């Protein structure tokens, strides 16, 4: 065999080898690139389900956080109210004592020597008691001359009057009291009404 012939055969073999390699690579690519369509659809469905689950759990977590924040806020409000109005029952029980001391002072003749010392003692006791309850947020409602407020006043009677505007408090029969803005007892009042109109004139 001549060297020329050997050279031609070698070149032909070299040309044919890459074809074989390319064909093998293409066949390998076809095997990997052609997965089963049903398998792909199944994976896509699983991915969609997983994404939906994640979204649902995110929404649930946000709802739970919002609910916890609401509970925390309500608990703080309840604690604040409990602290503010813990004395409500006790303060309500003290009101008749205050009323009794005030009535005692109103109906005692302070000019008589025998009662002067007693009146001074009752006045000091009343002043001390009122100062103490005021420290804890109990304040008197004494609305004489003010417009009638059904939230804070209880009308005991209505009287024709030209002294004050109609629907104003003419007289206070018994003072009311509030605890931190909440009515413990409404003021018992006499309310003014305008004079009756004579329809026969």
TrEMBL record:
GO cellular component: cytosol
Protein localization: Cytoplasm
A Pfam family matched in the record: GrpE
Membrane-crossing residue ranges in chain numbering: none
Main location: cytoplasm
A biological process from GO: protein folding
InterPro entries referenced in this protein's UniProt entry, alphabetically: GrpE, GrpE_CC, GrpE_head
Keywords: Chaperone, Coiled coil, Cytoplasm, Stress response
Coiled-coil residue spans: 40-78
Cross-referenced CDD domains: GrpE (cd00446)
Residue numbers spanned by region Disordered: 1-32
MF (Gene Ontology): adenyl-nucleotide exchange factor activity; protein homodimerization activity; protein-folding chaperone binding; unfolded protein binding
Subunit architecture: Homodimer.
Role according to the record: Participates actively in the response to hyperosmotic and heat shock by preventing the aggregation of stress-denatured proteins, in association with DnaK and GrpE. It is the nucleotide exchange factor for DnaK and may function as a thermosensor. Unfolded proteins bind initially to DnaJ; upon interaction with the DnaJ-bound protein, DnaK hydrolyzes its bound ATP, resulting in the formation of a stable complex. GrpE releases ADP from DnaK; ATP binding to DnaK triggers the release of the substrate protein, thus completing the reaction cycle.
Similarity section: Belongs to the GrpE family.
UniProt protein name: Protein GrpE
């Amino acid at each position: 065999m001549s060297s020329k012939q050997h050279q031609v055969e070698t070149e032909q073999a070299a040309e044919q080898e890459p074809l074989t390699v390319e064909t093998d690579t293409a066949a390998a690519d076809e095997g990997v690139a052609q997965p089963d369509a049903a398998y792909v659809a199944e994976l896509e469905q699983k991915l969609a389900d997983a994404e939906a689950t994640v979204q649902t759990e995110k929404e649930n977590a946000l709802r739970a956080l919002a609910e916890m924040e609401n509970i925390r806020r309500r608990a703080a409000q309840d604690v604040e109210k409990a602290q503010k109005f813990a004395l409500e029952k006790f303060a309500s029980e003290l009101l008749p004592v205050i009323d009794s001391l005030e009535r005692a002072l109103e109906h005692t003749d302070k000019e008589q020597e025998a009662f002067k010392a007693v009146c001074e003692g009752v006045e000091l006791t009343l002043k001390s008691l009122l100062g103490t309850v005021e420290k804890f947020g109990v304040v008197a409602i004494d609305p004489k001359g003010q417009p009638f407020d059904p939230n804070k006043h209880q009308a005991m009677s209505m009287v024709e009057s030209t002294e004050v505007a109609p629907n104003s408090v003419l007289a206070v029969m018994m003072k009311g009291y509030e605890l931190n803005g909440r009515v413990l007892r409404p003021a018992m009042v006499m309310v003014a009404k305008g004079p009756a109109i004579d329809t026969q004139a």
